[in-house]
Amino acid sequence: MMETVSFNDFKKEALNDPEVRKEYETLKPDYELRKRLIELRLQAGLTQEELAKRLHTQKSNISRIENVNTKNSPRLSTIEDYARAVGYNIKIDFIPTS
After folding, report:
1. Packed helices 18-43 and 59-66: angle between N→C axes, nearest 10 degrees
2. Domain ranges of the chain
3. What's the CA angle centered on 31, arms 25 and 34, to 5 degrees?
4. Phi, psi for 53 (deg, rounded to 5)
5. 85 falls in which pLDDT band (50, 70, 90)?
6. Rounded distance, CA 89 to CA 87, Å?
7. Is the Cβ–Cβ distance between 54 and 85 less than 8 Å?
8. pLDDT tens-digit series, residues 53-83
9. What share of the chain is helix, strand, coil (3-state, %, to 5)?
10. CATH topology (fold) of 14-85
11. pLDDT computed for residue 7 by the predictor
C-alpha cells in the first residue's frame, strides 16, 4: 500500500532540489499575484462572470487573468482595472534581492 504524502511534505521535499527551487522562485510572484486577484474577487462577492460585466469583457478573459497555468502575465493596466472593479487600488513596491 502506498503511503499518502501531503502536498506540503511533497513541496518541501521537492524544493530541496536546487533546480526545482529556482523554478519555484521564478514562478512564485506570478502565482501569488493571481492568487491574490482571486481572493479579492471572492471577497467582493463576485463571480468571474459578474466581474467580466463590470469590466466590459468576457468571462474567459477573467479566467485567463486568474489562471496560474497561463504563460502570459496580465498587463499592469489590466491589473489596475481588475483591482478597481473589486474595490481596490494597487500599490507597487520594490524589495532588495538577497
Report:
1. 140
2. 14-85
3. 155
4. -65, -40
5. very high
6. 7
7. yes
8. 999 999 999 999 999 887 788 999 999 999 9
9. 60, 0, 40
10. 434 Repressor (Amino-terminal Domain) (1.10.260)
11. 85
